[in-house]
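Aim 2, interim progress: modelling of the heme C-bound target.
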Amino acid sequence: MKAINKVIIWAMLACMPLLANASEGGVHLDKAPVNLQDQASLQRGAKLFTSRCLACHSAAAMRYNRLNDIGMSDDQIRAELELPEDVKVGSTMQAAMDAGSAKMAYGVAPPDLSVIARSRNADWLYTYMRSFYADAGRPSGWNNTVFPSVGMPFVLADMQGEQEAEMHEGHVSKLKLKEAGSMSAAEYDSAIADLTNYLVFMSEPAILVRHQIGWIVLIFLSVLLVLMYALKKEIWKDIH
Ligand code: HEC
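Predicted structure of the complex, ligand included:
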């Protein structure tokens, strides 16, 4: 028995590095407050994503009507996301700009964002969207602390405002707001939390259903455990 306990403890310890999210390139990442149960947040994120990101990026694995899963009816999807007449609610999310022109304009084609929360994690995305700063040395005029020399211009500058980098020995030591945007820092963080929440949902829309199934299985197993224990007592009661 003792030996088995030891094996279990060692196995758990061995798995721990896999569970911890390694931060990339030594840059500090802020914890994204992801909550997939918060439908209002997911809907706000979906609106921000479709209005601001689909200009350049596609999400070709995502259909508009999967937003039914986060509580939006087909009519709401059409009205609130302002879908053009020729786009059906059953269509996949396509970029407004074609990849070729985008590559010409930004030097790199904007990647499809369908599963971006799996290739980059939620904390990375949450930090990335809050870490753009003005840099006159870059063609777009913008740089980013978690993605140095990024080709993407900062498209949410009207909301966050313009950040400036304080340099220390050739490295960015701190970002400071130089010019305010339409949102306060707390409002902007909250909008990006919604956007990140949405990107996590989009990377795995079935995750909501799977969580539900997970709970049902756990409840079933607990009931089974109680029944089995009662059965064991019944069988052994005459033998003791
Ligand atoms: C004006 C065009 C444009 C818009 C609008 C835009 N992006 Fe980008 N984005 C780019 C380009 C170009 C790149 C590629 C940058 C590179 O590889 O250097 C990029 C890269 C990214 C990346 C990094 C992908 C990776 O892992 O390499 C993420 C994440 C991203 N964009 C998210 C967003 C989100 C979220 C929005 C909406 C708020 C958005 N982008 C809006 C042009 C755009």
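Residues 20-24 have pLDDT under 50 and may be disordered. The pocket of heme C is lined by residues 52-53, 55-57, 102, 106, 108, 110-111, 113, 116, 119-120, 125, 128, 150-153, 155-156, 195 (CB under 6 Å).
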